Amino acid sequence: MLEERCTLLPALSVVAVTGRDARAFMQGQLTTDLLGLERHPGLLTAACNREGRVLETMRLAGAPDGLLIIVRRTLIPGLLQRLAKHVLRAQVWLEDRSNAFSVAGLLDAQPDPSWSLATAAATGLTIMVAGPRRILLVGSPETLLATLSGVERTTASDWDRACIEDGEPTIHPETAGLWIPQMLNLDLLAAISFSKGCYLGQEIVARTQHLGRIKRRMLRYCGPADAALRPGQTLFAGKSAAAQVVAACQGPGGTEMLAVVALEYRAELLGARPGGSEFVPGDLPYAIPAPAADTEA
To answer: What span, in angstroms and rounded, lies between the C-alpha atoms of 9 and 13?
Structure first.
């Protein structure tokens, strides 16, 4: 049986949205339906611009006075600045709680783990289910360290690799605004609601889904361990620009990568330079649908 491993995730941080109108306000900003938040703590969602391009991916949990957002620390200033412009007269308060809270990841979590989630809940930690074997824990640094004291330690790179294996995208400052949610497979990860009503960028996202104009999708690739990739980097199939890097993680077994790929090149080898062929297709835990034959991306 696998045993739980934990790591602190300093690249992630916490934003609190509080006030009487907090959830109604965020319902109009995010791609998922927040009515399911209590049933699915750790709900994956995205915020888009008016053109339907993803600016942040994040996970959510309910709080007594609103909700908590787990997002990359480098995206928080832009997120807060943009949300503040939309608050208007709503009773909503936005707060960066990076100094008060830390985020940890628990890997290889079992349905009935020896390290008990009930114990974590008793300490006041916020628990978010992030994948089949991934759990996010949010709390004060002292509480996290005390609660995880008996759990085997791993690294943030192991967490990043598990996210790639699960086919979960992450947005970096370099890639904010590049892709619509479906290109990042957020529709396949239940991170888009097509029935909840309006949110920023909703018209573009819904029209794309209805017309089947999705000829670029996020796929997984594996390459050499010494490959140096950056978010947003262009990759080539032969001499053709075929993909852009979403996320990559180096390890002793090789480099794992998620990239948004033009589906006409999905079965081909990709390279970091024209004519290169360092990266071979890998598996995802969900099926990628074929695009409609008579539409354009």
So the answer is: 8
Helices (H) and strands (E) in the chain, counts: 6, 15
Euclidean distance between CA atoms 267 and 221, whole angstroms: 10
Q: Of the candidates 117, 128, 131, 127, which has an alpha carbon nearest to the alpha carbon of residue 162?
A: 131
Pairing of strands 54-63, 280-281: unpaired
Q: Order of strands, edge to edge, in the sheet holding 134-139? A: 126-131, 134-139, 102-107, 5-8, 152-153
- List Cβ neighbours of 126 (8 Å cut-off, separation of 6 or more): 41, 61, 63, 68, 137, 138, 139
What 8-state DSSP symbol labels residue 62? E
- Residue pair 25/87 in contact by the 8 Å Cβ criterion: yes
Per DSSP, what are the bridge partners of residue 5? 107, 152
Q: Each residue of 181-231: pLDDT tens digit?
A: 999 999 999 999 999 989 999 999 999 999 887 999 999 999 999 888 999
Query: pLDDT over 90 for what percent of the chain?
Result: 77
Beta carbons within 8 Å of 257's beta carbon, 6+ residues apart: 164, 220, 221, 222, 223, 227, 229, 245, 246, 247, 248, 249, 279
For the record, the structure tokens of 44 come out as 């994956």
Q: How far is CA 65 from the centre of its chain?
A: 24
3-state helix, strand, coil in the chain (%, to 5): 20, 35, 45
Domains of the chain, with CATH numbers? 5-165 (3.30.70.1400), 215-285 (2.40.30.110)
Which tokens go with 57? 């991916």
**Cross-strand bridge partners of residue 134:** 107, 131
User: Rounded to whole angstroms, what are the CA distances from 152 to 90, 108, 109, 147, 237?
Assistant: 45, 11, 12, 12, 41
